[in-house]
Amino acid sequence: MGVRYLLLVVLGTIVALALSRYFHLGTAQTAVAVVLSLAPAYITWAAFRADRAEATAIDLDTAAGQLAVAVKAQWDDEAAVRRVNDPYPLPVAWRATDDDLAESWPLLTDLARAWPGGPPGDPALWPHHPAGLAGADAQIGEVFTDRVPTRRLVVLGEPGAGKSVLLIRLLQDLIERRTDSSPVPVLFSLASWNPRQPLKTWLAEQLRRTHPGLRTPAPTPVTTTAGAPGDLAQALLDAGRILPLLDGLDELPPAWHATALDALNRALPAKQPLVLASRAAPYRAALTCSDTTVRLNGAAAIQLLPLTPEAAADYLRRDAGGPHAPAADRWDTVATSLGTATPVGQALGTPLGLFLARTIYNPRPNTEPGPAAPHPDELCDTTAFPDRTTVDTYLFRAFIPAAYTPHNPYPPRWTAEQAHRTFVFLAQFLQNQRGGSPDLAWWELPQALPARTRRLTAAIPAGIAGGLAFGVAGGFGGGLAVGLAGGLAGGLAVAIAFGRTLGRRVGSATPSTRLRWSPSGLAVGLGGGITLGIALGIAGQLAGGLGGGLAGGLAVGPAVGIALGIALGLETEEPDLTSITGPVTQFSLDRRAFIAFGLAVGIAFGVGVGVGVGVTFGDSYGVGVGVTNGLGVGIAFGIAFGTAGGLSQTAWAYFVMARTYLVVRRKVPRDLMAFLRDAHEHRSVLRQVGAVYQFRHIDLQRHLAQHQT
């Protein structure tokens, strides 16, 4: 930026002196023009330097500390929403995996001892055999920190066994143990990663999306793999200040599993601590899918164990009010099947199965009187449920009606039928248009529209904006109605002609971050406007006093400068690192940015063109008429350019148009963002991971995606 600014000043000075010599301007005129331009040039440079110095004031230690605060708040809130501790955390135990799924123990200990600077922990705490990795519940932090020599761990488990919740527990424990020099644990969902993309590039994008404050320029020179200047997100990753907790390797397409493991080994050095979670069967298949076994370098591995029958029965009865509550007796028959090979015993042997069962069969307190809750004994009917798959399918099917019953502490605004229809559509969208990804990002919803509809979605607003602008401009000469009709028709025709190009933008737009008024931007606009005014004044003087000559230019300059300052002064604000941008917050910020950008550009053009036209043509039409006409034309074109600029920098408008189409087709509710927020906060159908939503479990998403509509 500094080099480009310097080149612009030098080039502008050379051009100005050349014009002065060509038109034989006097020394006094040239000196006045140059002197008057020095002040705005200095103000512009000083403001830029001040903003730059303020942006780079934070160091990596401070950034890591603030990020740790934000991560803790994020996952404390999410654990509460997921009811991890309600009525109490489900007991989760584990053992060391089979030897063929992990590095040999002697290799791990030798590797850790050979690292430059010594091992990351105390070798006296290392067990003599991988069997010493066994543990349960809150011990996961101790196991990772003290018992794993390399602090690289693979967590394996069956579907619904509690891998994601265990990672949340580990993250919270590591945050509590963290010192100023420790890396910050951050949970990433691997489902949205394409292994062809460099891992650190993807990790940095995820950090910026959830924590926009990490977009702040790094205090020391950092360069990304693409050669672009780096920021705090990239700097923290490169400095090893982020401890990645990578969830859901199995949620990638099976053909990518081995490729992903190889990419992890290439991207992360052996001394980089990390945790990787996956289902056991896909991980084993990835290790044996080719002639060469690919495993995570330097990693120990643990396997989650099934819940004990006693733990599962106690949990269901406690959620029903306690062992002596009348509702707890409803589980007596089911309890006798837990831990057996019966369909219900297998289905309720995981935390996911217990969560679904308690939601369906345990009525919540403080609810309005309603129909009696179904009885769990029906799950023991082997005629209706001959195998585990039928029990799982039934639990998934009954879960949404139970979550949206009107007899609820938080009565829903939507019926169970409306909710089910919406979730089926969203699951099928993720499965068909998003390649099975679990990440439900609101700004990607326009991809659900047919290709032709996407082109119209992009063309219509551009056409309307252009039509209004040319209509207002032409209306002063041939009538406003004629001008509006002609301009609107022309704008729509041009927009539709380029609809294919514009349509590529729909669904690929990304939301913007918070906007603010920048002193440097205002100074640049003001300085540029005054300089432009002086140039116009000199040109007017040479042309025989057109527009008032130098005096007119000096009058127009500040007005144009203010207008440009408004347009250029609106820029991205880097939020505090402790702030978290969830889906609803990001939606609100993006909407605000679209509106603010449109208003800013509209005001800028209106003021600049209005004053400029009024002063320039005041002698012919009168200053009042000139300013009025100029304001009208300027604001019209400002709205057109503001709309175009907003569409290019934000995703909100495309989402609104896509949502309108889907509402008309009865695919989603009108207030879709409120629906998603309610599904996350009060129904536990969705979970929130950074800036996106996900279904409570990938198997729930897949079940809904198979629904025939």
Structure description:
This protein has helices spanning 2-22, 27-55, 60-81, 105-114, 140-147, 163-177, 199-210, 232-238, 257-267, 280-287, 309-319, 332-337, 343-347, 351-361, 388-403, 416-432, 451-478, 480-497, 499-503, 519-542, 549-568, 583-616, 618-621, 623-649, 652-664, 672-681, 698-705, and strands at residues 93-96, 135-136, 152-157, 184-189, 242-247, 274-279, 300-304, 515-517, 570-572, 686-689, 692-695. The chain is α/β, with parallel strands linked by helices. It is built from 27 helices and eleven strands. Mean pLDDT is 79; it is low at 1-19 and 51-57. The radius of gyration is 32 Å and the shape is globular.
Shape: globular
Class based on secondary structure composition and strand pairing: alpha/beta
Main sheet properties? 7 strands, mixed
> How much strand?
5-15%
Which parts are unreliable, with pLDDT below 50 for 5 consecutive residues or more? 1-19, 51-57
Strand order of the largest sheet: 2-1-7-3-6-5-4
Number of strands: 11
Radius of gyration: 32 Å
Q: Helical stretch count?
A: 27
What are the salient characteristics of this protein?
single chain, alpha/beta, 56% helix
Helices and strands in order:
Layout: H1 2-22, H2 27-55, H3 60-81, E1 93-96, H4 105-114, E2 135-136, H5 140-147, E3 152-157, H6 163-177, E4 184-189, H7 199-210, H8 232-238, E5 242-247, H9 257-267, E6 274-279, H10 280-287, E7 300-304, H11 309-319, H12 332-337, H13 343-347, H14 351-361, H15 388-403, H16 416-432, H17 451-478, H18 480-497, H19 499-503, E8 515-517, H20 519-542, H21 549-568, E9 570-572, H22 583-616, H23 618-621, H24 623-649, H25 652-664, H26 672-681, E10 686-689, E11 692-695, H27 698-705
Parallel strand pairs: 3-6, 3-7, 4-5, 5-6
Antiparallel strand pairs: 1-2, 1-7, 8-9, 10-11
Helix pairs in contact: 1-2, 2-20, 3-6, 5-6, 7-8, 11-14, 14-15, 15-16, 16-27, 17-18, 17-24, 20-21, 21-22, 22-24
